[in-house]
Structures are given as C-alpha cells and as structure tokens.
Amino acid sequence: MKISRKLHTEIRLQNLAFSLLFLAVVGLLAWLSTRYSTQFDWTAGGRHTLSEASRKVLDLIDGPVKITAYARENRQLREQIDDQIGRFVRAKPSLSLQFVNPDTQPDKIRELGITTDGELFVEYQGRSEKLPQATETALTNALQRLALAKDQHVVVLEGHGDRSIVGRANHDLSQFSEELGRKGITLSALNLAVTPAIPDNTSVLVIAGPKTNLLPGEVTLIQNYVNAGGNLLWLADPGELHGLAPLAQQLGIKFLPGVVVDASTQLFGIADPTFALVAEYPPHAITTQFQNVTMFPASAAIEKPDAPGAPFEGEAFLSTLARSWTETGKIEGKIQFDANQGEKQGPLAIAYALTRSVPKPEAPKPAKPDAKPEDAAKPKLQRIVVVGDGDFLTNAYLGEGGNLELGMNMIHWLAQNDQFINIPARTAPDAALNLPQTALGVIAVGFLIVLPLALIGAGAFVWFQRRRS
Predict the structure, then answer these.
(1) pLDDT at res. 348
(2) For the domain with range 150-330+341-360+377-420, which CATH number is right: 1.10.10, 3.40.50, 2.60.40, 1.10.287?
(3) Average of pLDDT values for 115-144?
(4) Pairing relationship of beta strands 204-208 and 185-190 according to DSSP bridges
(5) Residue 368: pLDDT above 50?
(6) Helical spans, DSSP H, in 135-271
(7) Dihedral angle sign, alpha carbons of residues 75, 78, 80, 86
(8) Mutual orientation of helices 136-147 and 52-60 as an angle, nearest 10°?
(9) Of 109, 253, 256, 388, whose CB count within 10 A is highest?
C-alpha cells in the first residue's frame, strides 16, 4: 500500500495526539497520587495492617489526638515513625502527627523529659503519654490508657501465701499484672494485717487464692467492703476456703467438694485429668463474642442455690464439658465417676458473675440553684466474680488459649469498663521465626556448603561439555 504525503501527515498527527494524551493521563495520575494513597497488605500475618485490637481501641477515641515525634533530621528514623503512625492516621483521621527536631527546642525537651531520639508525645483530652518508640503495640496501649477517663485501682490481697503480683514463679500473677499496667490499670498489694483498711479508691479487690487462714478481722473487713458495694474478684481453689466461708455465705454461693476432672483431656495431649477445658460460653457481658478455648488446671465446682431474698443475682458464665465430674477421691490410677461418693456429673459451673444494685450515698447539694446534681443518688451496680480456679491467670498458664483475654475481660467488667471488653490483649502479630537447632544446622549447611558446591559442580559440568564439543 502506497502512503501518500497527506496520510503520512495524519498518522504523525495521530501519534502526536496519542503521546500528548498519554502524557496528560500520566501527569494526572501522578497528581492524584499526591492527594490520595492506597495500600495493600499481602503479607501472611498482616504485618503492615492495624490489628483488630488497635482498630477497636481507635473506635473508642472520640476527638483529636495529637502525636508529636521528637526526632532529629534522620530520614530513615522519620520514615519509620511516619509509616507506623500513618496506619493509625489512615484508620482515624482525627489523629495528627508532627515532627520536631529536639535540638531546636532544648527547653521543651527538658520540660517533657524527652531522652530518646524518636520519642513520641501523645496528647488526648488533656491527658498525655510518652512513648520511647513508635510501635503499634506501644501506641495502642497508650491510646487505651488515655481513653480511660478515670483512674482504675486494682488491689490484690497478700500475706497468706496468696499469688503475688510481682513474683516470677509459675504460680504468681506478675505477667497478668504487667499486662493490666500496660492497659492503664494500677495494681497494688495490700496486707490487711499490716494496713487494716481497704482504700476508698479501690476499683476491684482481688482475693488471689490464700494458702493459710485469714484472721476473723480480715474477713470482716472484706465483708464490710462487699456490703458497701465494692467490686470483688475471688480466685478460689479446690479444698479449704481458709477462713472465707462467711464470705461465700454472704455471696450466696457454695463450693462443691472435690476437684473437677475430665479424663478425656488425654485426647488433646493433656495427661493430667484435673485440667478442665471450657469451649462454649453463654451470652454474658464478660464473654461477649468470646470464642477461644480456655484452660483451668485445677478447679472447684460452684453452685448458687436459688434462695428467696438472696441479695445477689448470679449467672454462671464458665462451665465445663458434660463429660467432667467432681472427683472426691485421690487423683491416681484409673478414676471414674462415682455418684455414691457424692460426686456430681458435668457440666459444672466453675465461675459465677454476681450483681446487685447498691444505693449510692446522697449527693451534696449543688452550690448554685441552676447547677445539676451528680448521679450519686442513682443506684450503683455492684459486680462480683467468683472463679473456682486461680491458676489459669498465673505465669505458667496465662498464655494458654484465651486465658489472658478472659482475665482482662473480667477485670474490665468488674471495673465498669464494658467498652474495653473483648479487645485482644496482644496487638501485634508475632513476626519472629523460632526454629530448632537441627533445622538451623540444616539451613546453614545447605546454604553455606551444599548450594555453593552444587553451583560449582554445575559450572564445571557445562565447561567440560563445551570443551568436548
């Protein structure tokens, strides 16, 4: 086909128009990329996406959050901080981030106590937090602490062989107490024999499995605290109540003799039959949308007889499987259910949530005629949780199944923080790869010896083949 000069000119004009339009589209896309951004996280563990816990905490934030990063002109450090905080900003536009070079404001740095390059200062509704580094876990915990409008004080009794909130032994509660501290809840230990008074600002009183008998005066102090409407978490154990029988009678509960056993747990690789599993939960506030299996190493079954005029309303929110029973004999050899020994067949309740309405003290009269009195006259909802096993929150078993999340839900419910229930305690995916020494040795030999020798052998084979040809 012969191309005329006119046709050739039209083709060149078409190519020029196409090039101009293509450049215009590319320029428009480049401009749009500066105004809008879209990201896709294709990693297996969602490493670059906010976790479910972080998103739930952000939902509780109502109002602007100002984050100031005191970082020097270090491009790598600032990009790392901007990447971490940017995930929160995209999910919650009310968050803002600004960078400040600490060398330009030495007085401000001394006033705030900034000591680390890249330290964050988070401000929300007049409260503030300092973070040494910008990680999702640290920022999520800080936002949750700032979202708590009031101080929360959990007091744990000690002095009778109770589980310690600072001890590092397997039977202690230090890991659980540290997790509560990260969520903005203050824990303190109280020995009633030394300080015979429960602080007025106690949000939750915890009885953490005493091993020796409490003095009658100590029990009276606890009963008075309950009578006054105080919230209580009682972590009991099978066997003796160590002087707390009057408290059980006051709450209207009864501990069944023996220990809960489930011989079928051997199917799950658990040799000890005293380990009870809980896999189903009733629609209670503590177990809202809770689906994780929880493990209780040694539990006592609890009953709440329906007595007329009982002060507390009770609901069992943890029950064992139907194949369990209360074993009153020795846990050795072959064990089986024996109704003649007073044993009771499952399902068995091992935790009760008790509630009642307690009148608040009368509010003081307002100073001004147009001032509104506080809600002090409205009844207060008292909350008590009694669990037949406290080992599930100890250092040895806190990481089993959903034990940690369940314990956090109990404390939040007791402290009237229902909005924080069912927020996972772990906010960041585990990116660590832990391999046994054998696997590490195989990988080292493979990459350092086998693979280089294979490449050298392949090269030598090709060289010999070429020489023969």
Answers:
(1) 93
(2) 3.40.50
(3) 87
(4) unpaired
(5) no
(6) 136-147, 174-182, 216-227, 245-251
(7) negative
(8) 30
(9) 388
pTM score, whole prediction:
0.74
pLDDT: which is higher, 436 or 96: 96
**What rounded mean pLDDT belongs to the chain?**
86
- Both tokens of 34, joined, read 């500066």
Q: According to CATH, what is the number of the domain 52-145? A: 3.40.30.10
Single out the residue of 142, 132, 134 nearest to residue 112, CA to CA: 132
Adjacent-strand bridge partners of 131: 120
Q: Where are the domains of the chain?
A: 52-145, 150-330+341-360+377-420
Residue with tokens 């007073």: 342
Longest dimension (CA), the chain: 114
HSE (CB half, 13 Å, CA atoms) of 467? 6
Residues 223-272: tens digit of each pLDDT: 999 999 999 999 999 989 999 999 999 999 999 999 999 877 776 777 78
CA separation (Å) from 30 to 24, 33, 36, 291? 10, 5, 10, 46
What is the distance between the alpha carbons of residues 110 and 103, in angstroms, rounded to a whole number?
11
Is the predicted pLDDT of residue 308 greater than 80, yes or no?
A: no
Q: Which of 172, 349, 385 is nearest to 260 (CA)?
A: 349
Q: Which structure tokens are listed for 308?
A: 């007329």
Quick one: tokens of 40?
């896709």
